[in-house]
Amino acid sequence: MWQVTTIQLGYPGKSTHHGGLGWSTIGLARGAGRLVLLDTGGIPARRIINRAFAAQGIATTDITDVLITHLHHDHMINWPMFARATIHAPRADMEWALAQPDGSETVTETAVRALQACPRLRLFEAGCEVLPGIASAEYRGHTLHHVAFTLAGSPPTIFSADIAKNRVELATGEADMTMDATAHKASIARLRAAWDAVPGTVLMPGHDVPMVLVDGRPTPQGKLEAGITAWFGDDLSQTTYFDLTS
Q1: How far apart are CA 41 and CA 215, in angstroms?
Q2: What is the pTM of this model?
Q3: What CATH class has 3-243?
Q4: Which of 19, 73, 150, 170 could make an SS bond with 218 (beta carbons 3.0 to 4.6 A apart)?
Q5: 21 pLDDT above the threshold of 90
Q6: What are the residue ranges of helices labelled H in the chain?
Q7: 119: CB partners within 8 A, 6+ apart
């Protein structure tokens, strides 16, 4: 049985002037004698990961496994932080990422190639049990071979990443940023059905807080937190804080 906590909360927004934010959910799962990271976040998440680990008395070298849902930069680029971990990535999505041209807006070619060469990489076929009690399933759309992980536990957890990135996509069945809108819509419907099939299941979307279904509605568990501090004054002591949650 797996216990899953959040290391970094995802954020349901995009930057208007500086590219995508890429603030994605990172999960930590304990069970079966393992310590498993679910996605890795983007480069800015390294500080968040280190602080969260220090607060829990664990080190990056304690991570036994890293599970990657898809090969977009904000979900996989930090895999080198975990020097002793087996890195589990979906074979089909890895092949897709390797085929992208240099300069792709969503795939970091250097990180993907380095992962391909890593002796700790384990490619898996979607639909298999990646680790004891952790099942994988392919949900096409956001990328052509995106996967979700379902972790057995009390409660069970679905780590869905960007199949449905936030509460709006979960509620409407429509997705922003998709490679195949028709397949993506069907994937969200399948995800909702899987979520509804086991009452009490926690779903962890890629860019929002964990949720449960209450009377059939996605209901956030916890408070969304995000903000920016900016320097517009005459010295470094003068800052302006922008709350990004309302």
Answers
A1: 31
A2: 0.97
A3: alpha beta
A4: 170
A5: no
A6: 45-56, 73-76, 91-98, 109-117, 167-172, 181-197
A7: none
